[in-house]
Design brief:
Helices cover 26% and strands 24% of the residues. The protein is an alpha/beta fold. It has a single domain, classed as Dihydrofolate Reductase, subunit A (3-Layer(aba) Sandwich), CATH 3.40.430.10. An 8-stranded mixed β-sheet has the order 4-3-2-5-1-6-8-7. A hairpin with a 5-residue loop joins β7 and β8. The two termini are 17 Å apart.
Length: 195
């Protein structure tokens, strides 16, 4: 049985939108792109690489897939620690608009994403990592398919933007299973689903 692990860079107020680059995702007037980069240190970079390398496959929403597919196949020598697993391992993409995927090893999930991910979870193998992909994460949380949250929580308030937690009034219990603080004051936290 595989696990689904959501890995995100997140602000104190729960925003995950556009953490890496200024022009990554400016939808809905978001102007704080690249906010996470000033909190990256050696420990958080190792955490990021370790999470990607340990995954057996990846789950993406359309926008995150398009960003990753345009970058990682052309990644330079200094990015190969992340590029190699991302390029070589299976990638499952939730999209209502894409008809064809060009990134090697990528396949479209069926329109019923929750059922498709539940079927993937029933296979043997290591964990499936979700990064970014806010709409996909909402769907997976609402369907009770997320087993673990790995969050880099940065000491910053962004005042608005996309969040991974759905506003559906459902209560979900999680248990803190590991945490570390970085030199920049960010917290690397791991939460396992309870019950």
């Amino acid at each position: 049985m595989r696990r689904v692990v959501v890995t995100e860079f997140m602000s104190l107020d729960g925003v995950v939108q556009s953490p890496m680059y200024p022009d990554e995702d400016a939808s809905n007037g978001f102007t704080h792109g690249g906010w996470n980069m000033k909190f990256m240190d050696h420990k958080s970079m190792k955490w990021t690489v370790d999470n990607v390398v340990a995954a057996d496959g990846y789950l993406f929403g359309r926008r995150t897939y398009e960003q990753f597919a345009s970058h990682w196949p052309k990644a330079g020598p200094d990015e190969q620690a992340l590029a190699k697993p991302l390029n070589e391992r299976p990638k499952y993409v939730a999209s209502r608009t894409l008809k064809r995927l060009d990134w090697s090893g990528a396949e479209l999930l069926s329109a019923d994403v929750a059922t498709a991910v539940a079927a993937l979870k029933n296979q043997d193998g290591g964990y499936l990592q979700v990064t970014g992909s806010t709409e996909l994460v909402h769907t997976l949380l609402e369907a009770d398919l997320v087993d673990e949250l790995r969050l880099m929580i940065d000491p910053i308030l962004l005042g608005g933007g996309k969040r991974i937690f759905p506003d559906d009034r459902a209560m979900r219990a999680w248990e803190l299973s590991a945490s570390k603080t970085t030199s920049t004051g960010a917290m690397l936290a791991r939460y396992d689903r309870r019950g």
